Amino acid sequence: MFLFSKPSTMPSPDEALPGRYEPILPVPGPHAVLGTPIAPPYPTGLQIAEFALGCFWGEEKTFWEQPGVYTTAVGYQGGITPNPTYEEVCSGKTGQAESVRVVFDPAKISYDELLRIFWESHDPTQGMRQGNDLGTQYRSVIFARNEVQRAAAEASRTAFQERLREAGYGTITTEIVGPPAPEFYFAEDYHQQYLKKIPHGYCPNHSTGVTLPEGFAATPLQYIE
What we know:
Layout: E1 47-53, H1 56-64, E2 69-77, H2 86-90, E3 97-104, H3 111-120, E4 129-130, E5 133-134, E6 140-143, H4 147-166, E7 175-177, E8 184-186, H5 194-197
Parallel strand pairs: 6-7
Antiparallel strand pairs: 1-3, 1-6, 2-3, 2-8, 4-5
Helix pairs in contact: 3-4
């Protein structure tokens, strides 16, 4: 979203901005496309996955278009500063990554399938960037909410690394964080479903073109939130 250099190292707690106690989006509205609530509580039986994979505008759309996804939201996650603003995140002084929350029905779409979409939708070898989007907010992260999610994420990372090497790419820099997953702070309202509100908005494609094997499954286990 911003094509200039930003800090490429995480701030220390002493360097991080203080943030605030109150959320910057106190009452998140309904999903602009799906019409469902973007904030909890969610219906019984649904599960949550959270990913950072570059600019959250386009990546949120990728997920909301999937059958079995109940709702999506964008936010900030994995850093130090609580309830940051977008401008604060862009400063590189919060440690927060641009994150997408995906609330899904596991009877209709599996966590493994969401992992496949995650890996195939960006370049996980770029460190603190995606293409021209530079800075810690664009790093690649899987936020695991339980041990089964973490095991599935690790297995999928191993499988995708092999495919990337075959295609001539380097080492995956994706972090797997949790459980527990760090707090998800909802981004400002104008960021939610941005590409519905701004249909021709900024939406680069950073996919490597590498895919996981057909029918890939990281784990046969179901899990409970």
